[in-house]
Amino acid sequence: MKATNLYFPTLREAPSDADIVSHQLLVRGGFIRKLAAGVYTYLPLGWKVHQKIAEIVRQEMNRIGGQEILMPALVPLELLEESGRDKVPVLFHLKDRNERDFCLGFTHEEVIADLARTDIQSWRQMPLYLYQIQTKFRDEPRPRGGLLRVREFTMKDGYSLDFEDAGLDSIFEKNHEAYARVFHRCGMEFVAVEADPGAIGGSENREFMLLAESGEDSVLQCERCGYGVNAEVAEIRPKPITVAAPDSVPSAEVVDTPGAHTVEQVCQFLKAAPQQLIKTILCRSGDRVVAALVRGDRDLCLPKLGKAVGEGLNFELADSETVERVTRAPVGFAGPVGLSGVEIIADPEVLEAADGITGANQPERHLVHVQYGRDYTATQVADIRTAGAGDGCPKCADGHYRQMNGIEVGHIFKLGLRYSKAMGVCFQDETGQNREIIMGSYGLGISRTVAAIIEAYHDEDGIAWPISVAPFDAVAIQINSDDPSQTKAAEAIYHACRSSGVDMMWDERNERPGVKFKDADLIGIPIQVVIGRGIMQGKVEIRLRSEKGHQEEVVIDGAPLRIAEIKADLLNQLKPD
RNA sequence: CGGGGUGUAGCUCAGUUUGGCAGAGCGCUUGCUUUGGGAGCAAGAAGUCGCCGGUUCAAGUCCGGCCACCCCGACCA
Q1: Which domains does chain A have, with CATH numbers?
Q2: Model ipTM?
Q3: Angle A486-A489-A493 (CA atoms, 0-180°, nearest 5)?
Q4: Share of chain A above pLDDT 90, in %
Q5: Which residue is nearest to nucleotide B76 (CA to C1')?
Q6: Which of A133, A341, A358, A420 has a 20 to 30 Å separation from A573 between CA atoms?
Q7: Strand B: positions under 7 A of a protein C-beta atom
């Protein structure tokens, strides 16, 4: 493609609404444009990258026996009523002219289930693995971060149909391996982690996190055994607890702490360490209210609290009215001592506080010298705090977690019978029995992967795409568009490259050299060929976007071959296995 | 949904305090010069100052309402 014909409106400055790197570079480089919050147009360069990633995913899905289909984005709401997902908050609703309810698909378990219940009658028709690469719609509470969290995005979503558990286990692991190959081919490091299954449900699930500083998910991995888990749900290996002796500290005492409602303020006021504080957090699940106790320097983990209390309860922080009703004090002064009418769930670390500080359940007052066993007890002691770096791994004897930031780009689920049961998706097994189909669901966000790759591959000048996903393999930068000898050389290289399978952009614009260099760096094409002053000696320069300062001079005729070699080398480095 | 912020040329932003001709830089158009890291000179085009209403002789500026966008939180398949 000649640059004069290519629509790539680059910008010198990033728009003010972009504050993360991938968003800024995508807009500055002319890859995307915003239409509304969380809704973007892909311009030619952006769409090429998108298609390259989609094609890698497609190849790897086909490799494990997947068959590509395309389901509608427009889905009758009544289908989701069958599974009970019609009330999911991120669902986009609409009505047709006859006032019938529809929604825009946010994931397609129900559609696959509907397909399966009409077409699959026998165990002989399975296993099946069907997938699609399609636009998804989610009315996110807060779209943000350019392509990272949007309301309309592209996802590969695959669904497996099996007649036995072993088949589900097998396709689940095959997807894991295929995802590993996809990310490797995109040049990305990832960690597969256990996670909260959320609204999709099912027995087992695994998230795929691409590692990036700016990632908004906290990922923990055991440095010893490699066990990975999302910090949201990570358990901590129990360690021995020493409850302080009851008489080793003075009696509990109420002190005035005017204006101190936060851990930081209380610590400052009482000249105490956060570890001494016992945070008392009131949580609600329906009508049930519990008080959760964690050490002042720790965070409460709501999913773990729900798990500890049981019944798979979904807890949320209690509103201030509830807090005031239960503690008879404003938010910020709750404490376990004398707290009645609610269950008290304590994290084990809290018991170790020999000389604790808690809210006094009175306005502007705290209790000091508080001790577990003497001044209060818990209904239940359970691991309910958010895990972090250095905490013990629950899967091995002596490993500890290290913490990384990740971007969730894939999530796979063993759904089991969750949808088959709700929607009556049955088949006849070899004994003639009617049984429900065993399902699995496997998502991979294409557009989010685009952003994640940029988060990992950029410098102060712009993007440095891995060649497997780059919008072009190479760019020919012609320094002077008026110089006939440069034009002749550039044209020869351009045509030779194209016929040898190298996708080249030829920048023959009548612009200052600096503009062309800046644009080439910004849009991140891996191989740069500079056709300029060396032309007198019949030479051009070849540079790599990812290795600033490195360049080689080659004769004009030799350039296409060398460029093809470099492309093959770069691709080779991204080969899986 | 709660808290905070922003809305003026394609982009980045002044101007709003104290009401009085609609501004700058970048980009764009034309011409000449220039061509190895976002060129120089000259001439130009470009605006419903987010929208609606109000106050006023006069509103980008003051008042009321609404909308959009961004950030923090809640939420998040």
Answers
A1: 31-235+403-455 (3.30.930.10), 253-381 (3.90.960.10), 465-572 (3.40.50.800)
A2: 0.94
A3: 135
A4: 66
A5: A140
A6: A133
A7: 1, 11-13, 25-27, 34-39, 68-77
